[in-house]
Design goal:
about 575 residues; alpha+beta; 2 domains; five-stranded mixed β-sheet; two-stranded antiparallel ribbon; elongated
Length: about 575
């Protein structure tokens, strides 16, 4: 029997990964236009960011900086989970089924495309048999991708790193294409990755540097001859990258609302050493005794993505020992191990307990740009290395016929242990008031304050409502990174008397009736924010929030299509 052509095999692999991604997200397909993949938080923010780019380009607006959220100061989108490349890709699904449907479609695409590009890359090292297909599946449905499929669309679309690997292999090992051509390819891929996730772009540079260093040691004579090729390619890549990404980077680092302080704590979001052995709730096989511990990993267990499991760890060690003479296995093992050590962060964490033991990531925490990187996310590249070793192991065992069956069985057991569990789904009420926004007669330039006030992922409903309204709302709110006056970074509107009161009401469920000095501060905050209308949508402690603004403005709201609204408010309304 003849083997299928490479093109048919590639198509079959892609379809298989799409099928696996659909199964992973099976819970959402009963209502894909009103509920999204995942049980929590950040997708509401991602849905807004996803639709912003096509909206801005279609209306002649600046796609990189906006006062549509976070008014009046606005938001520098380059410092946020801004996904212009995915926004353009999601335009057609959004036209067909709305913003939530576009998000769900791109979640499936993220898993499937990531597995597919890994499959294409691994064919370089494991031939054209079963091995690359299994390796691609390992990458596509690894704990890293399964976890971020629940929360972070920008971190889920990791189909560019395997393409980086292909280019570097061609540049340094195979050397069939001119160096300048590979440099252009590297520059173009870098731009695409920048416009999906700048953090993944930065960590890709680190991973590539480590890979090149490992290849240089393993292929020393060949690498000495390839230094000129590398220099030409990197120069061409840098020129290509700066021509296409220079303006967005200038907006980020020189433009308004740029951040000065570290975005998040790299020590908090590092790989816990026990995570290598203990599953999180994202694994299909996850005993309660294990998840009771792992649920405390990495600040949020959603970021604990290093679970290899004892069977896979043993397999990797055995294969490394047996095939150390095999350069691809040796390079993948060393590179993956170095990246795993870096993912442990600046100090060792063991069982959710930080220690004072310094680790190799510590110097990176004081470097520009890299100070914002969460080291636990380097497990992405660990899983690409693991996928490579698994692919080569499967292909080698398959080539041995019956003698390779025990090894194939070992691989099957090891991979069964890390299988992901199907993801959950979430939804919120979207009041008809927002879906019929053009009928609400609110001028486009008027700033609107919406409750609940975004400050974290669990309070981001207003972002989704604004997306459903077609981006016609100029919001004082934003679940986005913004600089504070003292240089620190905030994940929502800066702290004022008004925002503090709203957060206290929605988080603690308490009633606040403003009087005296507080009332004067609230009036000043309304004036400074240029707020013309206040809307309270479905939320916890809704009655208390409505009572707060009713007392503040001295009049009850209009109840219109699922919201309470005070129109044309101003300082004069605060008696």
């Amino acid at each position: 029997m003849t083997s299928p052509s490479p093109h048919r095999a590639a198509l079959a692999a892609l379809l298989a990964y799409v099928g696996g991604a659909l199964l992973l997200c099976v819970a959402v397909w009963g209502a894909p236009t009103t509920s999204w993949v995942g049980r929590c938080c950040d997708p509401e923010q991602s849905i807004w960011f996803l639709g912003w780019t096509p909206y801005a380009l279609g209306h002649g607006l600046d796609p990189l900086f906006t006062t549509t959220i976070g008014a009046p100061a606005g938001v520098n989108l380059m410092w946020n989970a801004f996904v212009p490349a995915l926004g353009i890709a999601g335009w057609l699904p959004a036209q067909l089924g709305g913003p939530i449907f576009a998000y769900n479609t791109l979640v499936v695409a993220g898993n499937a495309l990531s597995g597919w590009t890994a499959f294409l890359a691994l064919r370089r090292y494991a031939g054209r048999g079963l091995g690359p297909f299994v390796g691609g599946a390992v990458y596509a449905f690894s704990p890293y991708l399964a976890s971020h499929a629940e929360l972070h669309l920008n971190l889920l679309h990791v189909w560019v790193p395997p393409l980086f690997l292909l280019v570097l292999d061609e540049l340094l090992v195979r050397r069939r294409q001119p160096a300048w051509r590979m440099g252009i390819a590297l520059g173009l891929l870098s731009v695409v990755q920048l416009f999906i996730s700048e953090e993944i772009f930065a960590t890709s540079v680190i991973a590539a540097g480590i890979l090149v260093a490992v290849i240089a040691v393993s292929h020393r004579p060949e690498m000495l001859a390839g230094l000129r090729r590398l220099a030409i390619a990197l120069s061409t890549a840098a020129a290509t990258f700066l021509v296409l990404a220079g303006v967005p980077l200038a907006v980020q680092f020189l433009g308004p609302q740029r951040l000065q302080a570290r975005v998040q704590d790299s020590g908090l979001f590092s790989t816990d050493l026990l995570n290598l052995f203990l599953p999180t709730p994202y694994q299909l096989i996850a005993p309660a005794a294990a998840t009771d511990i792992s649920s405390r990993f990495s600040g949020l267990y959603h970021e604990a993505t290093a679970y290899l499991g004892l069977p896979l760890l043993v397999l990797l060690v055995v294969v490394a020992i047996e095939r150390w003479h095999d350069r691809p296995v040796r390079v993948a093992t060393i590179t993956g191990f170095i990246l795993l050590v870096l993912s442990l962060g600046p100090h060792l964490t063991l069982g959710a307990e930080p220690t004072s033991i310094p680790l190799p990531w510590l110097p990176f925490t004081s470097l520009p740009i890299l100070e914002h990187v969460l080291p636990g996310r380097l497990t992405l590249f660990v899983w690409l290395a693991v996928a490579g070793v698994v692919a080569m192991t499967v292909e080698e065992a398959r080539s041995r016929g019956r003698a390779g069956l025990p090894r194939l069985f070992g691989v099957a057991v090891a991979l069964a242990v890390i299988l992901p569990t199907p993801l959950g789904r979430s939804s919120v009420d979207i009041p008809p008031f927002f879906t019929r926004w053009p009928a609400q007669a609110i001028p486009a330039g008027d700033t609107v304050l919406i409750a609940p006030l975004p400050g974290n992922g669990t309070e981001a409903s207003a972002m989704l409502w604004a997306a459903a309204a077609g981006y016609g709302i100029k919001m004082a709110d934003a679940y986005a990174f913004m600089p504070l006056a003292d240089g620190r970074t905030s994940a929502g509107p800066p702290s004022t008397a008004l925002t503090d009161a709203m957060r206290t009401i929605q988080r603690d469920g308490v009633s606040i009736l403003a009087a005296g000095n507080l009332r004067a501060q609230l009036a000043a905050d309304l004036r400074a924010g240029g707020i013309r209308h206040v809307i309270v949508g479905p939320m916890p402690a809704r009655d208390a929030m409505v009572a707060f603004f009713t007392n503040l403005f001295g009049r009850p709201p209009e109840d219109v299509e699922g919201v309470a609204i005070w129109r044309d408010v101003g300082v004069a309304d605060v008696k």
